[in-house]
Amino acid sequence: MNRFAALLDRLGYEPRRNAKLRLLVDYFRHTPDPDRGYALAAMTGALMFKEAKAGLIRGLVEERTDPGLIKERLRVDLQRFFRKRSGLRPLVLPVVMEI
Asked: How far apart are CA 97 and CA 74, in angstroms?
């Protein structure tokens, strides 16, 4: 799991396509079988957890994290989402954040 997390972290910061491909090849070459399959499924969106609902995950995160930090992260992500959609700061965001 730590190797997969490190891979995702490095992929997120690597701007070059060929370097990303080298990271992926290296990871899949040196990772044993069940972990390799889980990683491939997670990266392609084919990994399904029937019991892991959004509310359950949110509750687990809230137990281990500062609520203010989660709220701020959600606010920033919503702003980014609305800017991409409209190019403007939405007027509804303060109302959404109060819910």
From this structure: 8
